[in-house]
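worker-03 picked up job from queue 'complexes'. Input manifest follows; two sequence lines, order preserved.
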Amino acid sequence: MRQGEISSKGAWTGNPSGGVKAPDPIILPDATTRFARTATRLEALAVGHPMATWLHFMAQLSRAQQVAANALGHLAGPTQAAVDLAVAARMPPLAADGHERDIAWHDGLAVLLDTLDVDATTAPAREVIAALRARAPAWVEALADGFLQSGVDVEDAGAALYVAAALQVYFTRLAADLSVASLRLLPERGLCPCCGSTPVAGVVTASGQTPGTRYLHCSLCATAWNHVRAMCVTCGQGRGLSLKGFEAGSDAVKAETCDDCHTYAKMLYQAQDTQVDPFADDLASLGLDLLVAKAGWARHAPNPLLLIGAADSL
Amino acid sequence: MHMNRRQFFRVSGAGLAASSLVALGFSPTPALAETRNFKLARATETRNTCPYCSVGCGIIMYSLGDKAKNVTADIFHIEGDPDHPVNRGTLCPKGAGLLDFVQSPNRLKYPEIREPGSTEWKRVSWNDAMTRLVKLMKADRDANFIANNAEGKVVNRWTSTGMLCASASSNETGYITHKAMRSMGMLVFDNQARV
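worker-03 finished. Artifact:
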């Protein structure tokens, strides 16, 4: 039926895809808000939590990380040619185990320790800070290499926490300055396309242009990348996958367990809680880790801010 | 003991005793105590294709239950599959109402027959249904099969019976439909896409 006096020109004027878009494959971190957001979320989760004092301390640490990230500012980072070369070879351009660190990360660590070394911080935490300050830069550098590559000794667990926190700041700063258009997902979809690290957790979004999409968040540089849902992030199988959560508890945090490779990774559902933060919610759901581990699944990779002795590693 | 950020590991009380948490003077005891009060619940996300039309939208079905034998998984939510290239997580109103379609009390679960002239639906066994169907098809085919057309050419047509199949069928299902029906001379069959 013709309406009004305007005749149709026969040309389609709508949006050809009807507003339906493919999800962005990679979302780079915002180094100016990343750690502050985690700190705020940790404070919120600490209320009434059995591990409240620890979560408060981790919130303090995240705030110190934000101060360090702001102080560090923009870093030189790899050249665009180096990034292009790595991406063309399907390698992560900031490969955590191969990247030559800018000495500036020590400045970030110093700011982080200064910010954290206040009376509000617990005495053992301040003792570890003092001990770490007394160490030679070469020792700290070796600990950083150990953390990123081979592993660290249990005696250094305290110092490793601060070094890991400072490396998160450094790598987040670098990743934030990359050009997202020049990056590409790795063939190994479970690893970060920027630094090749394992994710800390996955977030199933409920807002934005592509709600329902799953993003894995890098445990080191905080880059988020798209990963197909209902598929194990470690082995890529979907048959033996299921979601485990507390019978009476938040529906926002689930452990995605795989019966093929017997590992699990945590998934956060934004639809259940709009405020979820992969770094904070992962720490606050330590109880779920314990219960799922007791049921026989191994965690896909640790959270760098909670390094746990691998007594019965696989 | 050693800790590595690239390792699979089981989170345990013993592991926590040698963790960065303890190294900074915190106690893992409350977290360990907390787990004693909780049980794990299991849910699954399963990929499937919407059964309604030929667009073939991807869906994710959520079900509760532990897949144990004799326990039917209880589907409690269905949403568009955000990874599916056809619909990218979107669904039309019919697809969005799939949960009620699955849980509908009026869902057809076995063959039923309403005899000519009757107003009642009567449950029959699969065997009876198949036998009756085949008998009726054969009777109709024997009566109405056209072997030659007016010019005497061989055509082998059976135009008095038709068949309507489902839309969300795979190529293989379509192939079998075609082979089974065409070999009897049937011309009128379709994979409906427009319910």
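worker-03 released lock.
The mean pLDDT of chain A is 92.
Chain A touches chain B through 76 residues (CB under 8 Å).
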